[in-house]
Structure formats: C-alpha cells, structure tokens
Prior knowledge:
The complex is a heterodimer of chains A (291) and B (224).
Chain A: H1 7-10, E1 14-17, E2 27-32, E3 35-41, E4 47-52, E5 58-62, E6 64-67, E7 70-73, E8 94-96, E9 100-103, H2 107-114, H3 120-123, E10 140-144, E11 149-159, E12 170-180, E13 183-190, E14 193-208, E15 211-215, E16 218-220, H4 227-245, E17 253-254, H5 267-278, E18 285-286
Parallel strand pairs in A: 17-18
Antiparallel strand pairs in A: 1-7, 2-3, 3-4, 4-5, 6-7, 8-16, 9-15, 10-11, 11-12, 12-13, 13-14, 14-15, 14-16
Chain B: E1 9-13, E2 21-27, E3 30-36, E4 42-46, E5 60-62, E6 65-67, E7 74-75, E8 81-83, E9 100-106, E10 109-113, E11 132-139, H1 143-152, E12 159-162, E13 167-172, E14 175-185, E15 188-196, H2 203-222
Antiparallel strand pairs in B: 1-10, 2-3, 3-4, 4-9, 5-6, 6-7, 7-8, 9-10, 11-15, 12-13, 13-14, 14-15
The structure holds FE2/S2 (inorganic) cluster and fe (ii) ion.
Fe (ii) ion is lined by residues 113, 119, 123-124, 237, 241 of chain A.
Amino acid sequence: MAVTTDRAALNEWIACGWPEKVVPGGKYRTVLLGQEIEVRRTGVSSFEVFECDGHGELSRSLPVQAKYCCIFTTLGEPIRPLPKIPEFDEADRRITGCGSVGVHTSPFRIIENFLDMAHFSFVHTDILGAPERTEVLAYKTEHRKDVDEIWAIDCQFYQPAASKASKGGQMTHYAYRVMSPFSVMLYKNVFDDPTRNDAICLFVQPIDETECLAYMPLAIVDRESALTSIIDFQQTIFAQDRVILENQRPALLPLDPTIELPTRADASSIAFRRWLKAKNFQFGVYEKKAA
Amino acid sequence: MAERPDRWIGVALDRQIKPGSSNPAIVGGNAIAVWRAEKGPANVWEDRCPHRGMRLSFGFVRDGMLRCIYHGWGYELGGHCASIPAHPDLAPPKTICANVYRSEERYGIIWTNLSESPNAPLPDAGPDQGWQSIRSVYVARQVAAVKGGLASFDWGGGRVEEIGEGAALVNAGGLSLLIAIQPVDESKTGLHVVAKGEGAKDAKARLAWASRLERLRGSIEAQS
Ligand code: FES
Ligand SMILES: [Fe+2]
C-alpha cells in the first residue's frame, strides 16, 4: 500500500482512534492514507503520534489533538483547524463515541450516505423512514466560504422512530454540516422538544482509497435512555448503511456528473462532489479510464 | 472494464431465477443482475443502479419493476426509470435508464449477450422443447481448463461436441446433455446443464447425471 501523494488529503486533520481504545501508557498501530502510524497514550488525555517507516521503525512525530471522543492527526500541513462543535461542551448532553466500524469503500461514499435522506425509507425502514412516506422535500445547500464548509439546511423527513428517545413518529428537522472531506455531522431536532438538537458526528479514517474506519461521536439530549442502548441504536443504523456502502460500484466516488445521475433530493451530494472537484481531490475519487 | 464480446453466454437455469427476484452473477468479470418480474422472461442488466451505483441484484421486484434497494428507484422492463420515491410527483427524466443487456431463455437456460452490438446467433441445440434441467456447477478453473476437462471426462461412452464457443453437447445412449459454459472470471467457470431424451425422463436418472457433474468438477479441479 502506497502513501497517497494527494496534498488535498494529506493537509486535513483526520481521526485515527479514540482515547479509550488504549490504556494510559499503551500504544497501537493503524494506517492513514496508506501511511502506517503509531498512536501512544502518554497520560490520561495526552497522546503522541508517529509515522512508521518501511521497516516499522518510528520516524517523524506528527501533530495530535484529542477532541470529540476521537484522536486526530495529520500527515501534512493542515489548511484548517479542527471544527468547532460547541454541543460537546454542553453540560446536560450525553457525550459518547461509538467505537469504530470498518467499511470497504471510499471515504466519500460514507460521507455522502450520511448526508442522504432519500434512503431512510428503504435502508432504515420503520426507524428513520416509513415505506409509505418517501418524499424528500426541497432543502437548501450552501458553501460557507468563511469556514469552507458545506451545509444542507431546512431539511425535513418523516421518521417513525427518529432516535432512542422517540415515542412515536415525527417530522424530523435536520441540518447537515460537512466540516472537511473526512468529517461530517448532523443536527436533528429532539423528540418532543423543538428547541434542542441532537448532534451526531461521523469522522472517517481512510486507511486507503477503499478501506475506512468510521467513528460516530454523539452529543445528544436524552436523559432517559441507557448509554448502551443509545450506542446500540446508532450501531444498528450504521450496520444497515454498511451493507449498501460495500455494494456500490464503483467504490471510488465519481465526480463526473454524467457517471451517476442525481435528482433534486441529491442536492447535498451534488454540492459535496463539486466541492471535492474544486479542491482537485484525487484520493478516493473515481477517474474514468480513457477508452 | 472487462471485455464484452459478441457471444451468447448461459448464466443460469430458468428455474433458478424465481419470479419476483433479482440475482447476482458475473460474466467475464462483468457484474450482472438477473431478474424476473412476477411473471415473464428473465432480464439481464448491468449490476449497477444509474443513480448511485448500488448493485441492482440487491433490488426487489414490485409491480413489474425492479426497484433499487438504496433509494427505491423503480426500473421498468427495458430499463427506463419510472419511479423516484423521493419525488413521488415528478415524472423521472427519460434519460435515466439502467444498462440492459440482451437476454434469451432457450433450452431451459437463460442466455445473455453483453456486446453493445449483439449479432451472434444463440448456440443451436435443435428444437427448444423437452429440455429438463439437471444442475449448475461452478468449477474453480478458467474456461480453457474446463473445456479440456469436458473433452477428457468419461461421459459413459458419450462424446462431446462444442457448439459455438459457449456451449457443448454430449450424446450418450438415448440422451443429450446441453452444457452452457459461463466464464465467470480468471479462476472460475460456471456450467449450466440441461438434458433431453429417454435417458432424462425419470428423476432418478437426472439425479445420477447431477452427481456425475459433481465428479466432473472434482476431476477438473484435481488437475493443476
Ligand atoms: S442507488 Fe439505486 S436508487 Fe439510489
Ligand atoms: Fe443511513
């Protein structure tokens, strides 16, 4: 496996584990964009990350930050800081990581699936969508240039059981936020309380172009459910997505708009693909071979 | 992309593709979905939804349409997208169409031709009537080795004759076996076998042929 040369990918902060994955004093190895790295937990909340050379020896030391239930590092010179997600600092929220799930596909297929409402009725039947209420109402997408993020706002979808706290169906309101090519989050209104939002993140660690680890930290408003059942709910949803994600062809994301045909409900996917194209992304992207 | 020569290739026995089902197969490295509406002949399409690339062999059949499992887009016979559930009031643009390959059911076998301009005739095994399905076997060898194995196998006195590139006929005392040869990929070949004649009339005889085919597979795989 070769390390990518794509600067656009190298210059991002990328999740490479979560604190509880390793005890203080412990270490583990993993791979990022084709590069083997070693993560060391030097204290309760202090970490070090190193590149490993071709012989498995530690070479360069890499920047590291532990935040949002994840450990982040970068192989290049980050063009942006980690995103601000203030919900993780609100005292009354349940904050949890959900471990990691391996997925064989491009990181961008995973992000795009997370942004998509049109699959709820089919892939998360009777949970996030009902078979007889499949319509995706018009929503807005925007490129927020000051932070270079893609947002989809005014999204709504009818959900039979929107979260662990749900006691019935509701019209769920969503906002989606793509914070970097490898990280995305959503805000969805809490059952029975239109003034609060659950915050659900998805950080993707690309091991290589078509193999990833996905982390799903949550900062949610739910006083009643046990943490384990909240995590179970998210993992059930993600397991359903994974079957889809590993069976899309090609696995790499096509940016050429003639290869896959979007419709209005795909506005967020269109915005995401355009944004990647403008960044001249090569890593994880499908290039049509010349005939 | 894998090659798609102008040639008919058997991909399944008729009875294996149940009404109202979609099934995966691979032909010469090309992934296909073989599906059948609630009634009518089998269809062979590229195993890829034009929307976001989901495999259509994971799809489900409803009201004569093949629906993709990811966002439920419905495709009519012929491949046109007729339903986009995210926009129930919108007529899908005519340009959205699954990639449909030619397919035929003959001799109890489903055949497809993946070529963009298919002109080749189907293998000629005589009249279509009277063929009974025996079984399919998948051999972990490429086509050339499997054809060699067919030629040298002990067919109980029968002899093998190739009919075109994609099929072989065995005549053994009062019975004809038709073998459709499906190149799957570099290391796998499928054989779909039907029979007719006196020797294929009773179930016991057909079962005996089915186990003989299992021995054929074993004998080809035993050669290195
Ligand atoms: S990928 Fe098939 S309907 Fe969306
Ligand atoms: Fe999903």
